[in-house]
Design a protein that fits this description.
Order of helices and strands: HHH
Distance between the termini: 19 Å
Shape: flat
Strand content: under 5%
Number of strands: 0
Oligomer: single chain
Number of domains: 1
């Protein structure tokens, strides 16, 4: 299992635990924030930076 997979699984586990412990709306805000932060960071990139990032991801896959 890769380190990235472990981080994702840990995040999912923490998200599920917050749904059990905290009120649902606080848990929903935490999950939405965890999704929104990387998306906002990606959208802040210039088109040339996005293209470079996508090219790097393709190189890793194939």
């Amino acid at each position: 299992m890769t380190p990235r997979t472990k981080i994702v699984l840990g995040g999912v586990a923490i998200g599920l635990l917050t749904f059990l412990i905290l009120p649902w709306w606080i848990s929903a805000l935490i999950v939405i924030g965890a999704i929104a932060i990387p998306v906002a960071g990606y959208l802040m990139l210039d088109p040339s930076q996005r293209k470079r990032l996508n090219n790097q991801a393709r190189k890793r896959i194939g």
